[in-house]
Amino acid sequence: MLKEMLENVREKCPLIHNITNYVTVNDCANALLACGGSPIMSDDIEEVEEITTICGGLNINIGTLNQRTIPAMLKAGKKANELGHPVILDPVGAGASALRTETAYTLMEEVKLTVIRGNISEIKTLATGSGTTKGVDADVADKVTEENLVQSAEFAKAFAAKTGAVIAITGAIDIVANAEKAYCIYNGRPEMSGITGTGCQLSAITAAYTTANPDTPLEAAAAAVCLMGICGEIAYERMTDLDGNSSYRNYIIDAVCNVDGETLEKRADYKVL
Amino acid sequence: MLKEMLENVREKCPLIHNITNYVTVNDCANALLACGGSPIMSDDIEEVEEITTICGGLNINIGTLNQRTIPAMLKAGKKANELGHPVILDPVGAGASALRTETAYTLMEEVKLTVIRGNISEIKTLATGSGTTKGVDADVADKVTEENLVQSAEFAKAFAAKTGAVIAITGAIDIVANAEKAYCIYNGRPEMSGITGTGCQLSAITAAYTTANPDTPLEAAAAAVCLMGICGEIAYERMTDLDGNSSYRNYIIDAVCNVDGETLEKRADYKVL
Amino acid sequence: MLKEMLENVREKCPLIHNITNYVTVNDCANALLACGGSPIMSDDIEEVEEITTICGGLNINIGTLNQRTIPAMLKAGKKANELGHPVILDPVGAGASALRTETAYTLMEEVKLTVIRGNISEIKTLATGSGTTKGVDADVADKVTEENLVQSAEFAKAFAAKTGAVIAITGAIDIVANAEKAYCIYNGRPEMSGITGTGCQLSAITAAYTTANPDTPLEAAAAAVCLMGICGEIAYERMTDLDGNSSYRNYIIDAVCNVDGETLEKRADYKVL
After folding, report:
1. Residues of C with CB below 8 A from A93's CB?
2. Domain extent for A265
3. Sheet holding B57-61: strands in order across?
4. Do A246 and C253 touch (CB under 8 A)?
5. What is the pLDDT of residues A214-234, one digit of tens each?
6. CA spacing 20 to 30 A to B79: which of A4, B100, C112, C187?
7. In what order do the strands lie in the sheet with A57-61?
8. Which CATH number does the domain housing residue C45 bear?
């Protein structure tokens, strides 16, 4: 399954419209190219509908959002919905400011999202709901562990059921769930959190995977999460004593570039709950 | 000739004002430093005239353009014209949205451009002209090949004659032309398109080359195109099985940093039409 | 002393709010992670107070400033002052445009700064004062050398006395001074100026150091400057003939990631005036 997902990306080379932060945007572009997709970055309200139209999928990342880009995110999201394109939301820093939290809520309300990918804290913020909207039960731990895995997976499923989106919670153990099924993924390295933007890159890659595999968003998102984790492992094996987070960043993108479907299939380490 | 071009850049260390996209801006800055120039990035309308004034050349790149930066591009371009500074236009994504296409047209109409550098699709978009303006015959193929080379070179010359700018069309075969003469350049590697921003970097480097070689814009632009292609080749020779597009990006900029005039002269592979 | 400074950063993992330019922002984020801190980038006026509130320190860098971000810098700075957080100012390009110079003056007037870090030209611009404000005597050379070191250190001390901020002037010899004491630091490599953003990275790291060492801003800033210089040396030792400024950039951040307190202590090369 994972092999096929990867090969569909390489074969179809999906063009992804990214409205994303200026911190990790270059890595997102290179990660998209590395996985077999193609990136366009565009955030002006005058052109986002046209740009989305020529693309296959849309990746909205709210890091370094501002008053100018928020309406562009909404406009692009609605257009992508009209066209039936997958839309990924990366709610970077939801919970850290009212602007980010409210923007994420508005995007959830006004745009049909295919995948929401964030860390447990961001996803919990979104799941608690806003204003009069009652959220799902977000009384889960702040870290997904073996001990709370079943409860965390139930939380992800419930939030997926409520939103209709695939929910991808990434951390030491990743959970990728729709209403019925949760992939719990063990790939990855703790050192990945010492690099800025591995999460942003994963969201961009998830957009490519769901665009190239339109009928199976859950499996496509799970494949993207496995891919990123496995590439973090492969890159780590390459590290020397002199290497640090900057070289590690390069090695991960290099690994995304080089990894094949067999390796993805063989190294994927997950269970389904 | 090429050797002299390169050495003029290293000797004069031209300061280049860049109004450019936030995706590849860091690579543009490092590529400018690598080639022997010096970068300043500035896009606020309040300061662009002053910044352009202290620089030797201006590089305008319309990737991630927005309502705030478009007037700054025009203002800086006009000031650079007043001062007699070379102005490079990189029409990233012209044709992909009306905003980009119209912005490129407006820049062509209101600013005297020294070099326009883009891929064949972008250049064809610009050459078709806007509104009542009749463009040149852009009925050329979507890819420059050995078979259509003469016709493509004629197209580039015609567009150069119409605009007064050197036209640089980059792809598998690059064409750099003024009204009379076209350099057809065979350097480079297909893998360069797997990295975001090699085109943007080339435009920035072209600004440095035309600034340091003010009397020979055609040859300066051709030298910059040869340089980038040769550095793509040198960097590729360094690639290991574990390297991918991220390391390749670093190696190319490293090569720009280390390449000397003799190597540029020796490895340049072009013919003149 | 330096060892303790470094270890405090690694232990406390200070979260730093950065309002910074889009050229070097990714390197600043990775440099902060490498040194043991944690970055948040945010520049929208609607959220900067909240973001500053959840952080420990604030790093304001005026490169690629614009009309939208300048009020956000002021608002964040005032909030950080209220909370007693360290505030670092990196006056990138002060002197190059009125907008940059005036913005730096306004920040100095309205925000209590903990450290101002820039090159000699930027710091001289700030020290000359604006409008009716009489500045300190900035009649020092344009480059700090062994010959003018005493005079340069006196200038830095006088400017520190006037502003109440630690003044960090970086160049071939770095000076880090408060009103009474100046560290003259000899670490670093000339090749560091061939990379974009080593100064920006140092300012971000200085924010982490002063946040984790709140009672000793002078020593914390001096430790950050020594760290950056030493990492430039360590990274340079790793360079091969094929490496250029792009690999050097990666190696420096890698070195920041790997360097320990003993090495910092042992390799630091400074005298106190």
Report:
1. 40, 42, 51
2. 2-272
3. B38-41, B15-19, B57-61, B87-90, B115-118, B166-169, B174-177, B182-185, B270-272
4. yes
5. 999 999 999 999 999 999 999
6. B100
7. A38-41, A15-19, A57-61, A87-90, A115-118, A166-169, A174-177, A182-185, A270-272
8. 3.40.1190.20
The mean pLDDT of chain C is: 95
- Above 70 in pLDDT, residue A130? no
CA distance C34 to C201: 11
Confidence category of residue B140, pLDDT binned at 50, 70, 90 = confident
Of B26, B51, B254, the CB nearest to C247: B254
Report the number of distinct structural domains present in chain A.
1
CB B174 within 8 A of CB B188: yes
Residues 6 or more apart from A163 whose CB is under 8 A from it? Answer: A108, A113, A116
Say what the ipTM of the complex is. 0.95
pLDDT at C137 over 70: no
pLDDT band at A131 (very low <50, low <70, confident <90, very high): very low
Query: How far is A112 from A81, CA to CA, in rounded Å?
Result: 6
- Helices (DSSP H) in chain A: which residue ranges? 2-12, 25-35, 48-54, 69-83, 98-110, 120-127, 149-163, 198-212, 217-237, 245-258, 261-267
Answer whether A117's CB lies under 8 Å from A86's CB.
no
Is C34 within 8 Å of A194 when comparing Cβ atoms?
yes
Which member of A63, A96, A245 has the closest CB to residue C257? A245
Contacts of B26 in chain A (CB under 8 A): 26
Q: Give CA C254 to chain center in angstroms.
A: 19
Kindly list the distances between the CA atom of residue B265 and the CA atoms of A139, B57, B232, in Å, as whole numbers in the listed order.
67, 24, 15
Q: Are A174 and A190 in contact (CB under 8 A)?
A: no
| Total residue length of chain C | 273
Give the dihedral sign, CA A188/A193/A198/A202.
positive
Task: Answer yes or no: is pLDDT of C151 > 80.
Answer: yes
pLDDT digits (tens, 9 = 90+) for C206-264: 999 999 999 999 999 999 999 999 999 999 999 999 999 999 999 999 999 999 999 99
